[in-house]
Amino acid sequence: MSAYVLDEGALGRELAPLNRIKDNYPKFLVTLDDFQSDHDGIRGVNLIDWLSETVSFDNRKV
Prior knowledge:
Layout: H1 8-20, E1 27-31, E2 37-39, E3 42-46, H2 47-51
Parallel strand pairs: 1-3
Antiparallel strand pairs: 2-3
């Protein structure tokens, strides 16, 4: 989890460990950013959406 990943340095720092994991499980980057994103299969989701369960835990789009 990272508070915000609006700059490329923070985004790269947070995605690097997740990119090294070579499995087929869904990966999420939980932030306070107000938008959802997808970075090579790693879904960026908002913390509030995550906690209120408005984000699906599988690979379907929300």
